[in-house]
Design brief:
Largest interface: A-B, 37 and 44 residues
Radius of gyration of chain A: 21 Å
Strand content of chain B: 15-25%
Number of helices of chain A: 10
Helix content of chain B: 40-55%
Number of domains of chain A: 2
Number of strands of chain A: 12
Structural class of chain B: alpha+beta
Radius of gyration of chain B: 24 Å
Helix content of chain A: 25-40%
Largest sheet of chain B: 9 strands, mixed
Shape of chain B: globular
Oligomer: heterodimer
Strand order of the largest sheet of chain A: 2-3-4-1-5-12-6
Number of helices of chain B: 14
Structural class of chain A: alpha/beta
Number of strands of chain B: 12
Distance between the termini of chain B: 11 Å
Distance between the termini of chain A: 20 Å
CATH class of the largest domain in chain A: Alpha Beta
Order of helices and strands of chain B: HEEHEEHEEHEHHHHHHEHHEEEHEH
Strand content of chain A: 25-35%
CATH superfamily of the largest domain in chain A: Periplasmic binding protein-like II
Chain lengths: 243, 381
């Protein structure tokens, strides 16, 4: 596979914003056949050749870039870091795109007035078994980010409860004690009587153009990518990332 | 395939060793419920476990270690105590630069026989004998740590309980000077303010509890499911309510100096008794009866260990484990100049209760990484 493959989110606001990045830079995006097609072409490159587009879910884009089946993709940094353990070995963050802002945060109930920082949480977690006969439960869909961040703060004794939606409701529902979730304005957390710890921001995420370090890069694919990066206004060329 | 061959030979050797030390053969499945491992060791272990799901969606795992299944099996069997188990078999963990399936052997001593020091000494002697099985001429090093000395030091320094707990946890993870500064010299005034609507209750634990109860009810938080208003109010008063824990700057600085000095203590295990005594008088602190336990453990180790094996006994004050069920001494065995231990063990008096025992059960044991034993490793086909 030597043709350059670019993956774009397949639906929603993220798709519109991702496509706008390219159309604003003078490229043209054409879907194959119907609007529900999973394939398309990016045209408007100076050599006159088209780049293959795959429309995938944002989560799949991170996975496929890791596997090397796509060269370029647009997805949230949170999804990249959640999908991959050794991100920097397999994926290059080519440029932040200025939309899709969201923070992955640690939030606890407002009523935990004695908990403000991770150190407090460490105290509380350590005491949970003795007081309540079980470990502290954390609802999240960000397993890897949670594990890495908690481990960084020396926190190991807790349980993750997988949450596939409405994570912010878990403490009130009694299925978890605290949450790790994504928030853009904090209003959902506020409405659910949760507060973010002072040092509870795990990741400040936004949509990124990512490049796969595991894909096979032909000279043509590299040249096309350099042109795309230049026209999109990236700070550094592809060659700086792939070495 | 595991990195260890000659399984028949191993089995024969360990069967003999276990019999000589009154160990019952432990039985454990390879496919086990993941829950007890995650519940005891915490989520940190998940990254290294092979996890899969059972037919009802429950989490199952390939046995990541033996201690927990051996303890659980004992609880299910309802057998008498004390009892000593021996095990040998494959365990499965994600590892870098090593096979994910490898053989472990080990011994778990559950219940009280005589003095803890006797059991501790016994277990270390068996671990040394096991480590020397493939090659009796190996030069072994036994590294010994004793977190109970550190705990006693904190008591002796009269630090508030919450600070002691933080220090003990940080100590298990490898206490640095940075940790000490963070814990001992906190800037509590910056954070920890109560929300405006609760300000008026800041000085009164009972009133704060009531206010929190009302707050949790209005937020729809189930009071039975999570932390209670009492617990929150109590911890608030302890942590943020009193100014600086009532510790003077002089006492903080003294605690820091003494803890740092203690962490750097190391040397030949047999010579440490004098070092500890000197430390006590120099810093005006006391390790209390922990020193007797330390001496008993060593003297029983000398009684029991095979004199045919050459062993260098070393103590390091900063050697501890991060798991909260380890309660007493810890040790590791090294062969020749290897940097990775071939055996590791210690006392974990809290584990059985965590796993569901109705009352505390003293326990001590070790595991041996058979793929790190040079001769058996080299002989692999």
């Amino acid at each position: 596979m030597s043709n350059l493959v670019l993956a774009i989110p397949s639906k929603g606001r993220l798709k519109e914003q991702a496509e706008a990045v390219f159309t604003n830079a003078g490229f043209c995006i054409e879907s194959d056949g119907s609007s529900r097609s999973y394939f398309g072409k990016l045209t408007g490159l100076s050599n006159g050749e088209a780049v293959d587009i795959s429309f995938l879910s944002a989560g799949e884009i991170a996975r496929e870039a890791m596997r090397g089946s796509i060269h370029l993709g647009i997805t949230g940094e949170d999804l990249v870091r959640e999908t991959l353990r050794l991100v920097d070995e397999k994926i290059a963050m080519l440029m932040p795109l200025g939309f899709g802002f969201a923070d992955v945060v640690v939030a606890v109930p407002d009523s935990w007035v004695d908990v403000h920082v991770m150190e407090d949480l460490d105290d509380v977690a350590a005491d949970f078994r003795r007081s309540y006969g079980r470990r502290m439960r954390v609802a999240t869909k960000y397993w890897m980010l949670t594990q890495a961040y908690f481990a960084k703060h020396g926190l190991g004794v807790y349980r993750i409860v997988e949450s596939l939606g409405a994570t912010e409701g878990a403490p009130a529902a009694g299925s978890a004690d605290i949450i790790v979730d994504i928030t853009s304005t904090g209003s959902t957390l506020f409405a659910n009587h949760l507060k973010i710890l002072d040092d509870g921001i795990i990741l400040k995420s936004e949509a990124n153009l990512i490049g796969s370090k595991t894909a096979s890069w032909s000279d043509k694919a590299k040249a096309q990518t350099e042109e795309i990066l230049t026209r999109l206004g990236a700070a550094k060329p592809l060659s700086d990332h792939l070495s | 395939m595991p990195d260890t061959p000659q399984t028949d030979l191993l089995e024969a050797e360990f069967t003999k060793l276990f019999a000589a030390h009154d160990c019952v053969a432990a039985k454990s499945d390879i496919l086990l419920s993941a829950d007890p491992f995650l519940e005891t060791a915490g989520e940190d272990l998940r990254r290294r476990m092979f996890i899969t799901s059972g037919p009802a969606g429950e989490e199952m795992c390939l046995r990541p270690e033996f201690t927990i299944p051996v303890c659980l099996q004992h609880l299910r069997s309802g057998s008498d105590l004390p009892r000593r188990y021996g095990y040998l078999g494959p365990v499965f963990r994600h590892r870098k630069n090593a096979s994910d399936e490898f053989l472990q052997a080990g011994v778990e001593h559950l219940g009280r026989t005589e003095q803890p020091g006797v059991e501790d000494g016994d277990i270390m002697a068996i671990a040394l004998e096991a480590a020397a099985l493939p090659n009796p001429d190996s030069k072994l090093t036994l590294k010994l740590g004793d977190p109970s000395l550190f705990q006693q030091l904190l008591v002796s320094l009269q630090l508030p309980d919450s600070l002691q707990q933080r220090l003990i946890r940080a100590y298990g993870r490898g206490l640095s000077e940075k940790d000490l500064n963070r814990i001992l010299l906190p800037n509590a005034a910056d954070t920890g303010k109560l929300p405006d609507e609760l300000q008026e209750f800041a000085g009164d634990e009972a009133k704060l509890t009531d206010a929190l109860t009302t707050m949790m009810q209005s937020h729809g938080l189930s009071r039975s499911a999570g932390r209670s208003p009492q617990a929150i109010a109590q911890r608030y008063m302890q942590t943020y309510g009193t100014q600086d824990y009532g510790l003077s700057d002089k006492n903080r600085a003294r605690a820091k100096t003494i803890i740092l000095a203690f962490s750097s203590l190391k040397g030949a295990a047999d010579s440490m008794a004098d070092v500890f005594k000197k430390f006590e008088s120099e810093h005006n602190v006391s390790f209390g009866e922990r020193l007797i336990a330390y001496a008993e453990r060593l003297s029983h180790l000398h009684d029991k260990r095979s004199k045919a094996v050459s062993v260098d006994l070393q103590f390091a004050a900063n050697f501890a484990r991060p798991l909260d069920y380890y309660t007493g001494f810890v040790f590791e065995v090294f062969i020749d100049d290897a940097t990775q231990p071939v055996a590791g063990g210690g006392r974990y008096d809290r584990l059985m209760e965590i796993l569901g025992a109705p009352h505390p059960v003293p326990a001590v044991g070790f595991s041996l990484w058979l793929d790190r034993l040079p001769k058996w490793q080299e002989a692999r086909s």
